[in-house]
Write a structure and sequence with these properties.
This protein is of the alpha+beta class. It folds into 5 domains: 6-131, 3-Layer(aba) Sandwich (Rossmann fold); 162-305, 2-Layer Sandwich (Beta-Lactamase); 319-406, 2-Layer Sandwich (Beta-Lactamase); 410-480, Helix Hairpins (Orthogonal Bundle); 488-635, Histidine kinase-like ATPase, C-terminal domain (Heat Shock Protein 90), CATH 3.30.565. The chain has a 6-stranded antiparallel sheet. Helix 1 crosses helix 5 (110-161). The longest helix is centred in the first third of the chain and has 52 residues, at 110-161. It starts with 5 loop residues before the first strand and ends in an 8-residue tail after the last strand. The structure holds adenosine-5'-diphosphate. Adenosine-5'-diphosphate binds at residues 538, 542-543, 546, 570, 572-575, 583, 588-590, 593, 599-605, 628.
């Protein structure tokens, strides 16, 4: 209580209040406030919290006893003295019910007033002391819990904000020592190789001791904890030497476990005093040990991930192939040095840039944006005569990865091979013509017997086959370098009719039905008429060749999205599914192609080159034994739609 207790007088009669203030309380060094109404009195009680109240029974804005009851609810320890003229029998009952300190009646004697005030103040002082005592009984354990939670939170924070394992473990040990009030603490970890425990973090141990500390796990208390996974103690009653370590009075070890395997212990001990550890310390230390274990586990995971990341980075950096990664939103998320080199990008930072802002190559952009052909292997020409094969893979939740492999040398090899084949084919033609000429002369020069005639026929057939092959090779060579640069408006219907006229004999021979399923004429396209005729000859020729007698051949045409689509359908042998991707390769013949059907395996290679020369695409859909559909698409930019 303050040195000069504060007394509040609440009464309407100012004469009495003045008397009490000036003549009785003032000289005794009490601080006095006076209020004439309940309202004002209540405000003062709330704001100034007086030590005692003297209440009159003459208030105008409320009944004094009700007011007293209300104020006691607000401040139960406030001593109240009642000054009343009422000396009826009911007074003591009301007085007792309310728990007031005293009541005074006129005339006022200073000694009575002072006696009542002192009694009241004393009672209030006793109450307050008792309250404090009671409160501390409840808040003591609470405070300890708060300390414990704060310590846990401190380590928790360092665990989430620190990547440095040393610092986290040191914090764990420091907090454990602080909380248990121990003299020193440590984290001992098991060295799997030697079977010994070493000190990974410590508090209050000498540095040299920490760095040289080794203790066998066998037959030691820490070893016991490792084995059982349970806490262990040494208390004041049983001081003992821990094998090859140091003498302690009291000690506590709790296990440090990762994924159910104990890898070490967290320990606190006292070497100077015998202060023992409390049961609640075990719970706390176990929580600390869990924190340490999480930190060690995280660090191991992190270093493992780091090693893997470094490995991958080295591969990506050293690999000769270009690697480009694009996110689902079309931004560049990965580009390795080889890819930078290919597109001459230097070492600019492209993190998060849109692919269009990084690359200028149209074909590459189409591939990276997942547009265009849905083939996983695409060739592009970067700069003049530098060719790359691009392989793309879509990876869920990542985007798309493109790998660029340099195939310039393959292209050159292919060109040299074509040059060689062209040269040889040319040189072979003249001797073959000579052979054919002389073979024909044999029969003219005189009679040949039946066997000789048969041999002559076989020679002629073989020479014809070789001539076909050479013709195809020469065609292909010419078409590959696109020698027929003559580009003109080609009425496709006329070309198709010429082709069908040329094949009419074969169709008739096999009694096949050919149907044209399109309205009107085919469009006029801009292209090379010779090549386009070869395209029809080969595709329709194949449909006839590989369809049995009486089968159907249908030719369809339509225009869609500025593309001319031509389809040749047959009801023939079909192509085995696993060979369909190879039939456009040079010299490839499907395994189900009958031997008696002559062929060089070059026809479709020629068709594909012609279609590509016209900026188009070709593919096959085929069911073995049922038939095949060859689809050719030529963009409308080339197919001029003037009918
Ligand atoms: P070929 O001279 O052998 O006909 P192509 O290059 O024209 O060579 O065709 C390659 C192979 O594709 C053929 O040998 C054949 O196995 C298969 N093929 C082509 N067209 C058809 C078709 N319409 N029906 C079935 N198989 C076909």
């Amino acid at each position: 209580m303050a040195a000069n207790p504060h007394i509040l007088l609440v009464m309407a009669d100012s004469q009495t209040s003045k008397l009490i203030e000036r003549n009785i309380l003032g000289p005794e060094k009490f601080r006095v406030s006076v209020s004439k109404s309940c309202t004002q009195g209540e405000t003062l009680i709330t704001s100034a919290r007086p030590d005692l109240m003297i209440l009159g029974d003459d208030l105008e804005d409320g009944h004094h006893l009700e007011f007293a009851a209300k104020m006691l609810k607000k401040q139960p320890t406030l001593p109240i003295i009642l000054f009343t003229k009422d000396s009826s029998d009911s007074m003591p009952i009301q007085f007792a019910r309310l728990g007031l300190v005293a009541w005074l009646t006129p005339p006022l004697h200073p000694d009575d007033v002072l006696g009542a005030v002192k009694r009241g103040l004393q009672r209030s002082q006793d109450w307050n002391a008792w309250l404090k005592l009671e409160a501390s009984r409840y808040t003591g354990p609470l405070q300890q819990k708060v300390d414990e939670l704060e310590a846990l939170a401190k380590v928790g924070r360092s665990l989430t904000s620190e990547l440095d394992l040393d610092r986290v473990l040191t914090t764990v040990v420091e907090v454990a020592v602080e909380f248990t009030g121990a003299e020193e603490g440590s984290i001992l970890l098991l060295d799997e190789e030697s079977g010994e425990l070493y000190m990974r973090a410590a508090r209050n141990f000498q540095e040299e001791f920490v760095s040289t500390f080794r203790m066998p796990a066998e037959d030691t208390l820490a070893g016991e904890v490792l084995k059982t996974g349970k806490p262990a103690f040494i208390d004041a009653e049983t001081p003992q030497k821990i094998k090859t370590a140091y003498l302690v009075y009291t000690l506590m070890y709790v296990p440090l476990a990762i994924h159910g395997r104990t890898i070490g212990v967290l320990g606190v001990d006292n070497r100077q005093t015998g202060t023992s550890f409390e049961p609640e310390h075990v719970t706390f230390m176990t929580a600390m040990a869990d924190y340490a274990a999480i930190a060690i586990d995280n660090a191991q995971l992190y270093s493992h991930t780091e090693v893997e990341r470094e490995k991958l980075e080295t591969i990506l950096t050293k690999i000769n192939d270009g690697v480009i990664g694009v996110g689902p939103d079309g931004t560049l998320i990965l580009i390795n040095p080889a890819a930078r080199q290919i597109f001459r990008l230097g070492d600019k930072d492209f993190n998060g840039a849109a692919v269009e802002d990084v690359f200028e190559h149209d074909d590459l952009l189409k591939i990276l944006k997942g547009e265009g052909e849905k083939s996983s292997r695409i060739e592009i020409e970067v700069e003049k005569s530098r060719f790359y094969n691009i392989q793309t893979t879509e990876i869920p939740d990542f985007g798309l990865v493109a790998i660029l492999h340099d195939i310039t040398y393959l292209k050159e090899l292919d060109r040299s091979k074509s040059d060689f084949v062209n040269a040889v084919s040319h040189d072979l033609r003249s001797p073959l013509t000579a052979i054919m000429g002389y073979v024909e002369l044999i029969e003219r020069l005189g009679d040949v017997n039946e066997q000789q005639a048969e041999f002559i026929k076989r020679v002629q057939l073989s020479v014809n086959n070789i001539t076909d092959l050479i013709d195809d090779l020469l065609d292909l060579g010419r078409i590959e370098v696109n020698l027929e640069t003559q580009i003109e408006r080609v009425p496709l219907s006329s070309i198709l009719n010429l082709s069908l006229d040329g094949l009419a004999n074969q169709i008739e021979e096999k009694k096949q039905n050919i149907k044209l399923e399109f309205k009107g004429e085919l469009p006029v396209v801009i292209g090379n008429p010779i090549q386009l005729r070869q395209m029809f000859d080969n595709i329709i020729g194949n449909a006839i060749k590989y369809t049995l007698e009486g089968g159907d051949i249908i030719i369809k045409s339509m225009e869609e999205n500025e593309q001319l689509i031509i389809q040749v359908l047959d009801t023939g042998l079909g192509i085995p599914a696993d060979e369909q991707s190879q039939i456009f390769n040079k010299f490839f013949r499907a395994s189900n192609a009958p031997r008696e059907i002559q062929g060089t395996g070059l026809g479709l290679a020629i068709v594909k080159t012609i279609v590509e020369n016209h900026h188009g695409r070709i593919w096959v859909d085929s069911i073995l034994g049922k038939g095949s559909t060859f689809t050719i698409v030529i963009p409308i930019a080339i197919a001029n739609n003037s009918k």
